[in-house]
């Protein structure tokens, strides 16, 4: 039972970390005001973060952030809303451990 609880906690933590990362990335994209290449964004997310998100959902999230960033949901709800999925082997992607570590620091208040 304890192992199952730990596994659930790890999955929830990972979902929250990825959701936080995507939310911040979308908000930063909007706030920077700079142009962006959607193909580059998707390739970075897939290849470096191990996440897949559709063009439509990504653009909808950007429009939402332009209107009011606080309307972007957080956690697993955000991932479901954006139809985010993980690529096989996502745990081995270059940004994965950095995302998890940064989120852990954020939760601990050391970031």
Q: How would you describe the overall organization of this protein?
A:
- The protein has helices spanning 2-32, 38-49, 55-67, 75-81, 96-108; strands at 51-52, 85-86.
- The chain is built from 5 helices and 2 strands.
- Helix 1 (2-32) packs across helix 4.
- Strands 1-2 form a two-stranded antiparallel sheet.
- The protein is mainly alpha-helical.
- The mean pLDDT is 90.
- The chain has one domain.
- The longest helix is centred in the first third of the chain and has 31 residues, at 2-32.
Topology:
Elements: H1 2-32, H2 38-49, E1 51-52, H3 55-67, H4 75-81, E2 85-86, H5 96-108
Antiparallel strand pairs: 1-2
Helix pairs in contact: 1-3, 1-4, 1-5
The description of the largest β-sheet is:
2 strands, antiparallel
What is the distance, rounded to the nearest whole angstrom, between the alpha carbons of the first and last residues?
A: 32 Å
User: In the residues, how many domains can be counted?
Assistant: 1
Briefly note the structural class of the backbone: mainly alpha
The total of helices stands at: 5
% residues in beta strands: under 5%
CA gyration radius, whole angstroms: 14 Å
């Amino acid at each position: 039972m304890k192992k199952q609880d730990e596994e659930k906690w790890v999955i929830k933590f990972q979902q929250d970390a990825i959701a936080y990362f995507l939310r911040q990335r979308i908000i930063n994209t909007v706030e920077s005001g700079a142009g962006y290449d959607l193909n580059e964004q998707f390739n970075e997310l897939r290849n470096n973060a191990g996440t897949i998100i559709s063009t439509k959902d990504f653009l909808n999230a950007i429009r939402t952030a332009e209107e009011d960033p606080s309307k972007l949901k957080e956690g697993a709800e955000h991932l479901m809303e954006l139809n985010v999925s993980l690529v096989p082997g996502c745990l081995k992607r270059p940004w994965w451990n950095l995302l998890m570590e940064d989120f852990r620091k954020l939760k601990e208040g050391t970031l």
